[in-house]
């Protein structure tokens, strides 16, 4: 039998175990024109929370009693599709199933010798592209400028900061544990890192960490952390808004100081984005990131949880900040 | 004797009469290399409120016990400066004085026969340029799109809406009296206009007025009006933030729903600006606006108050929404 994880209920606030349902179905078979895929690594990402709501967004919502889906690395265990062979590894947005048949559309073959397979869900996958494209296309950092990253120890934030350092910027990260703060400084070479949970005056802490002000704020979180950074932006600051993890589970609108006066006074730019808008830049981004990886200029953190059954819990743990870097489930 | 208006006290909240002081000084004389100017028209503008604070902004604050200043049209009554003759009219940022000597730096000669002199403080001056540049350079409207303008009956808003109509957009204005709403539709040919003071559900009213959603939101006001518009933006919406008149007098931060989730979900862009950032576009803008004026495609509203002594009151009346279009004092 084949295990499958369905959306059982739409979460109210934070997702809970009962929002998911495990079922078993008959083993799928590959028909003509299909491959049979075995799931190896599953990516869990904050943006999936949005797809669990029944509301219009940039991607359609998941349907109740249908499988959840996310970025997956899978092995081709049988192929009736030209171009794919048994033993190939592929990535794509796939259902949360142990095995699935697939027509190949949207699958990309990946080389298990060029990088760890899980990297294709992270630094060489959606999160790495998100960091690279959001920073380069919206943040447009120049050497000598100061970049602040919230959610800095996450999969996107840790890459943003490292790219900032490669480009010659001062980089300050904001994260939620002392361990993460330490990792940002030692492993990812951030100039400064701030634990927002133990800092009483975050606005003052950002100011102290950014003596010449904030030129680029790469925002992964929204909420009060962002208020504190916005209070320190320079004229012509750029603010790529990549996510608002702290707000995804909100059941009522989250109130904060209105930002329009700051935006005018500072002639600042804020732009929300999803990585697919920059698809034309992906080849450049992947080539550049692969080079930096090989040169040892870029490293990445993963939190790898083992077992297909752990996928929902790993996803829920994202909202408790339990991951360092990319959260991955190894099946 | 020569009347002068000084900044007497920095306002707390809305400016009041006692924040200004009238004094008399000896009549100025034009020295060699100077012109003697007689003030004819004075522009009062919301942005001046920011200069009355003792805080860093995009222009230096006014000094206490020094003259206030703003855009002025003046007549040259005596010239000891080559290039200027008695009877010339000029515009520039000048002190609130009946007469003043000036070295000519930053003055621009204007033609009293090409347009009404007051137009050089409005549609062919800073407010017209603000409307044109903010809309074209940040809003980037395309024919068939929907533009919403707040502060629509003001000097900037009314021009934004008209340019939108010229470009083939649907244009919806938000203003604060039924008279303004009527003027937006009859005089400026807005497709719809909403009186936010008499509308109980502004979000629903914006939705009804914008059946295909909001592509460009030209924001002059900030605050709850903007919350209602932001709730209706389309994917890839552009939001030039020109001003935040409703927030300029705030003594405590104004709270509202945080916008980051909307910015991400809609891949929206918000950019604050001041018109001087677009100086390179001014010649194009003035040429285009002059052409539209001559073709009768563009008209403008002015509220003209008479008397030098009325300058502070006219300025204070801006924050009560007493103006239709550009607020001008005729001296």
UniProtKB/TrEMBL annotation, chains A, B:
Q: Which UniProt keywords apply?
A: Oxidoreductase
Matching Gene3D superfamilies: Medium-chain alcohol dehydrogenases, catalytic domain, NAD(P)-binding Rossmann-like Domain
**Which residue ranges does UniProt annotate as crossing the membrane?**
none
Instruction: Report the domain of life of the source organism.
Output: Bacteria
Keyword Oxidoreductase among record annotations: yes
Question: Organism, per UniProt?
Answer: Pedobacter gandavensis
Q: Which CDD domains match?
A: PGDH (cd05288)
Name all Enoyl reductase (ER) domain ranges: 17-329
Pfam families in the record: ADH_N_2, ADH_zinc_N
The name this protein goes by in its record:
Zinc-binding dehydrogenase
């Amino acid at each position: 039998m084949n295990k499958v994880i369905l959306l059982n209920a739409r979460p109210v606030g934070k997702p809970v175990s009962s929002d998911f349902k495990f079922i078993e179905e008959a083993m799928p078979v590959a028909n003509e024109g299909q491959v049979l895929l075995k799931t190896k690594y599953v990516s869990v990402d904050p943006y999936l929370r949005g797809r669990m709501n029944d509301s219009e967004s940039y991607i359609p919502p998941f349907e109740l009693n249908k499988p959840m889906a996310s970025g997956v690395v899978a092995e081709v265990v049988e192929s009736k599709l030209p171009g794919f062979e048994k033993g190939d590894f592929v990535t794509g947005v796939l259902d949360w199933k142990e095995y699935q048949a697939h027509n190949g559309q949207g699958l990309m073959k990946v080389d298990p010798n060029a990088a760890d397979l899980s990297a294709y869900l992270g630094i060489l996958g959606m999160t790495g592209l998100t960091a690279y494209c959001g920073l380069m296309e919206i943040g447009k950092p120049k050497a000598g400028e100061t970049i602040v990253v919230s959610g800095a120890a996450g999969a996107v934030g840790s890459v943003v900061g490292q790219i900032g350092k490669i480009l010659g910027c001062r980089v300050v990260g904001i994260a939620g544990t002392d361990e993460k703060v330490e990792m940002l400084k030692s492993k990812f070479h951030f100039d400064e890192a701030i634990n927002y949970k133990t800092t009483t005056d975050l606005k003052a802490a950002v100011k102290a960490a950014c003596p010449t002000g904030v030129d680029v704020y790469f925002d992964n979180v929204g909420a009060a952390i962002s208020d504190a950074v916005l209070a320190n932006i320079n004229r012509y600051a750029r603010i790529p808004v990549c996510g608002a993890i702290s707000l995804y589970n909100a059941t009522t609108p989250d109130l904060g100081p209105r930002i329009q006066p700051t935006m005018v006074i500072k002639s600042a730019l804020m732009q929300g984005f999803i990585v697919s808008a920059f698809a034309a830049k992906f080849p450049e981004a992947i080539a550049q990131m692969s080079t930096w990886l090989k040169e040892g200029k870029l490293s990445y953190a993963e939190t790898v949880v083992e077992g297909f059954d752990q996928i929902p819990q790993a996803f829920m743990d994202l909202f408790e900040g339990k991951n360092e870097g990319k959260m991955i489930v190894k099946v």
